[in-house]
Amino acid sequence: MTWTLIDTATERDAVLEFYGKDGKFMIRANGLELMNGFHHDSEAALGAFAAGLAPSEDTRFLVGGLGLGYTTAALLDALPGNNPVTVAEMSSAVIDWFARHVKATVLPGPTQSLTIINADIADVLAGRDRFDIVILDVDNGPEPLVTAVNTQLYSAEGLRMLHDALPERGTALLWSGFESADFAARATDAGFAVTCEPFRRERVDLNHYVYVLTKNGAAAVKPRDTNY
């Protein structure tokens, strides 16, 4: 069975397409696959990794990018308490697709600690709210894929804004399909301690990565019982 196109939407300079197949879903941006429900193990591992960094039930999480919800679902499932989790999704269409088609199978449990907002993650970071752990799951790595506007997130200026938005010893995680020495250097220049944890696949060229950016301190300790 091939993928069936369910809906399309335009968000700024991006054309988003929502597909379904055998009860699973896929999102493409400008013709390139962003994520699909058959292959989401590294996104789920990212959510579990982030949960393992929470020092207390007061730890506040901000997730940039809803997508199909696998990162957020894994985060909520791995948290021991009801830590507040806010998801900032730029596309109202993606939020609607998730609510109508995806949520029932990906996030069927209680979600009283979850808030999903239609907003650009950069605007949320520039606001007054403070989040202890920020997860950037917006593109396929530290370069724009969905929209050129996301360039600012990975620039020297955007990384300084992210650094300023975090509290003392706050942490930002960035999912990536590739390694980027240039991004790591920019993050270091912005004041972060930087590590890159691989999610190993059957072939090295298929590995995924999570960049761990820690403010004002040594790099975050890798949590136990995660695949990263």
Description of the molecule:
The strands form 2 sheets. The chain has a 7-stranded mixed sheet with strand order 7-6-5-8-9-11-10, with helices on both faces. A 4-stranded antiparallel sheet has the order 1-2-3-4, with helices on one face. It has 228 residues and is of the alpha/beta class. It has a single domain, classed as Rossmann fold (3-Layer(aba) Sandwich). The mean pLDDT is 86. The chain has helices at residues 41-52, 70-78, 92-106, 121-125, 151-154, 156-165, 181-189; strands at residues 4-11, 14-21, 24-29, 32-36, 61-64, 85-89, 114-118, 133-136, 171-176, 192-199, 208-215. Helix 1 (41-52) packs parallel to helix 2. The longest helix has 15 residues, at 92-106. The chain has 7 helices and 11 strands. 28% of the residues lie in helices and 29% in strands.
